[in-house]
Amino acid sequence: MGSEENEERVFQQGGVSSILNCPSSGMGTNSTSDKVSGMAICSESIFRSPNGLDPYGSNWDPIVSLSGSLGNSTMLAQNHEFANSHFSAVLENQTTGSSSHLVHFPSDSGLVDLVPKIPSFGSGSLSEMVSSFGQIAESGSHSNFAPKNGVGLRRASTNLADSQDKFQNSEDRILGPSPYGKRKRKEPIEASAQNAEEEQQKDPSEDTSEFPKEDDEKKQKSEQNIALNSRSRLAVKQAKDNSIGAEPSKDNYIHVRAKRGQATNSHSLAERVRRERISERMRLLQELVPGCNKITGKAMMLDEIINYVQSLQQQVEFLSMKLATVNPEPNVDIDRILSKDILQLRGSNATGLGITPGLSLSHSLPPYPQGTFNGAPGPTPPFHPLPQHLWNNELQGILQMGFDPDPSISSLGPNGLSKMEL
Amino acid sequence: MKIAKNPHTNPTSIKTRFALRFLRAINKLSNDNGTSPRPLNSADRRKRCRAIRAASYASMASAVGPNKAWSRAVLRKIRNRTKEMIKPRTRRGAARGSMNPRKELGLGQEKELRELVPGGEAMDFRRLLNETGHYIQCLRAQVQVMRKILHYSST
């Protein structure tokens, strides 16, 4: 494809018009031409990045043909989202996609940032990348990028393989824009998303001096949280909102960080580890909160947790109110504790009888005022050795009392002794 | 990693410790109130109710010990409150919010959770989940013990 070579050269020279004259597409309105030129020029400078990869190597050809369109960057950004579903699609649709792509990026001047990532795509799964490019172009043409925002560009060779996982965990990956992963690591407290965005901006300002304006604008817009137009940054919040809230905004463009070096993988892994830890804790909480087995999703789980904590606190309040009206006798402490310990056993073994050594039960117990324990004179034998016959009687007495509405105790049942492993 | 301590198999379980402390506190309260068996006055009852509730949280926190952030926060709150009652002092600024905890965009749920769990304002989300888990366990134990105390004192 001679046109590809032409485009290569054009790219190198920053000649825009020939790109626009890409025979495959009818693209290139005047409004976009500037962007293309900007992108071409900027991409040129970025291509000299220290990646050490020859962006114009032979592997570039199919990519370059696509890169003629501005949509390239977004395609790169989106390749993960659509990778798993549209791989077969789209080489044919590249052109049309790219043309419509241009229409979508009138203001995306920072797309060039994505271009240097192309080298990283390099040798590996080029066909995948190409198809994903095309498919992204296609999808970009008829949908906004909002739902899929925030996926950082990764090296295709390693990442396209993971792309499916990452796509499904797009929410997870949103937090993993690599360049400021470093900063997050240093800080013991994870920065807020806003801080992350600020860091995000710091990093590109260091890395890409070509886009000072974008950084400033981005700082302004980051507060608005979504719709960082003409940004080639990863909108963490935006992505999260999209993934969680599922509210696609028309202004959402894919903004991807300029990747620099190898750090992205490790940082994304760190982010992934962090997310997994959080989800692990959420699972543990799920076990704690009753009736949460079917609930999946962090938001609903958090709702349940909050409700449960609130209900427990209300119960404490209610019980304390009731206790306020009741005046317990002062000498009831010990036997209450004793009975409570017995009641709380619930099938645990004898060691779990909960009698602390501190409890001075060795001295004679006062006879139980309630008289609920039959055959439990108990005062003389010390409770530390826990004579079984005594416990049996007392337990039976307690069980017969119907002491507690606690449902978990009902598991003891009439055969509670056997469960007690006395 | 969160360690799920099973209070039932632990001989010196939290429930036991809590029950001890709580009963002691209640006794102390009822002794301090004099010999009036029933505070029929609603205000007195409310005061007593609040005192009992504070006593329950305090005894649970002290039973848990200083290992957990939420128990430390509860104890700190109670100590500050008693100190303030004795000697009103200017409240030290809320330094909690300044640490910029990581925000999880759960539509404000995280914030709500932070408000619910004592001491939850100044920790990251992962730690918050940890503390929440332990807090839930202890709250449950607290409720159970209180219910039993109520049951026994009413029969």
Question: What report would you give on this structure?
Answer:
The complex is a heterodimer of chains A (422) and B (155). Chain A contains 19 helices and no strands. Chain A has 422 residues and is mainly alpha-helical. In chain A, helix 1 packs across helix 3 (30-47), helix 5 crosses helix 9 and helix 6 (94-104) crosses helix 8. The radius of gyration of chain B is 18 Å and the shape is globular. In chain B, helix 1 packs antiparallel against helix 2, helix 2 (42-64) crosses helix 3 (69-86) and helix 2 crosses helix 5. Chain B is mainly α and 155 residues long. Chain B is built from 5 helices and no strands. Chain B has one domain. At the A-B interface, helix 12, helix 14, helix 15, helix 16 and helix 17 of A face helix 1, helix 2, helix 4 and helix 5 of B. Chain B: InterPro entries: IBH1-like, IBH1_N. Chain B: Residues 12-81 form the IBH1-like N-terminal domain. Chain B: It holds the Pfam family IBH1_N.
Short overview:
The complex is a heterodimer of chains A (422) and B (155). Chain A is an all-alpha fold and 422 residues long.
